[in-house]
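note to self: dont lose this again. the chain is below, predicted strucutre after it. 492 aa total, dont forget to put it in the shared folder this time
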Amino acid sequence: MQNYNIDELLKTCEQEQLHLTGMIQSFASLLIFDSESFIISHVSENIKDFLSIDYKDLLGKNIKKVLKDFYELLDEYKLNDEGVNFFYKTLKKEKLLLKLSKIDNSIIIDIQKIKEEFFNATVKYNTELTIAPYNDIEYDDYKNKFLKLIYNQLKFDRILVYQFQNDWSGQVIAEKVSNRNVDSYLGLMFPASDIPKIARDMYMINPYRLIADVNSKNIDILTIDGTKPDLTFSDIRSVSPIHIEYLKNMGVMTSLSIPIIIADKLWGLLACHNFTYKRIDPLQRNILLNLIKQFSIGLQNFFAKKKVVYLDLVEHKINFLLKNIFDLNSFEIQIQENKKEFLNLLNSDGLIIIYNSQIWAIGSIPENNSLRNLDKYFLDLKSNKIVSNSISRDFELNFLGPVGVLGIKVESKNSTLRSYWFRNEISEKLTWAGNPNKSIVEYKGTFRLSPRSSFEKFVEEKHGFSNKFDNQEELAALKFINQFFKIIEGNI
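---
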């Protein structure tokens, strides 16, 4: 039996080339031709079911000659700014939805059959999500309203909003299920390896992922030169066998996921699960994408307002704490008389400020050698910030004292100012959807990760960690240290 390394296996998953599978799902067909020579380079094996011509009669041929009627449908196409386009066409009485995309010189065509009632149907856009939530209560209502609108379109068994954390694990923060018999995932965590980086990157490029039927057989893409086409922009590329196994273990037959993108970053996902096969028509697709867009804008506006309110409050607190600082001696008096207020600025248990060789310390702080190790580590870094909820783990330091730190430094020609905000260890319980630790199986003479078979609640108790410092607290720490630095540099 071979040896295996869990980190190496996770790395292998991260590097899986999802866009080069060489296959598509069976609900659609695919054709690729060269934009200059018009030679058909790739065809899915099931093309005859869609265009009434066998793949053998297409490969290596000029599309304008062997598919004259079909090519004429494409004659007026224009790719949008994202390099894709959708349009409806009728070919020999067959209603088709075509998606065109272009990579290098290759024109890639996804071909789907659609029902008569959805052909050129007009989307009636909903405007209920245009008003952003104002507070946390409205935020919860806003998420639930969003899910209700999605459910009214799809009627899927489970629909959820999945938010990514800083380490790319995720949590279900809102959910709607079709009935009480459906297992709830609300509040449960999922490990980062469930959605590896390659998959997250694909969401940013192509914001629609439908897995129509986990039990259907993938369709091979035939080629004239043995190359696998780049299906980055295709909506019909096949699915990783491990992900299919993952969905089957969930009891899911049809899955749809669409990214929630805020400020050009992947914030979360809309994930929809149905336990039986369910077809999604093009009209539903367009409505869903519009609802996602409205929801994303609403969230972005809500978070922006919260940030402004928070930073305004922080500004007032900092002004109060520093208003009577005239020199270093007056700061010593101020920090000792207002310990609670200084610590509460960042919900910290301890604070150390070092200006050149002078040190001020309040609350829960590390022992001297640990502080020296941390300070040397930070001074040697080019970055002006360190943040961790487990100092010993993240910085590989021999460290005794509080386990979490947010450090900020500012420098001038002759001076260096550092602030360290500390947080004590907490006993944290994380509730996962199943055991987050991947199991390993032997497969065809090698080892691979296997998706967990159960998604029952799994409680993990973590030690050696503090509460995390969030991005707004990092901004607050930076605002404080910059303002303090201006005061002491201006008075010395």
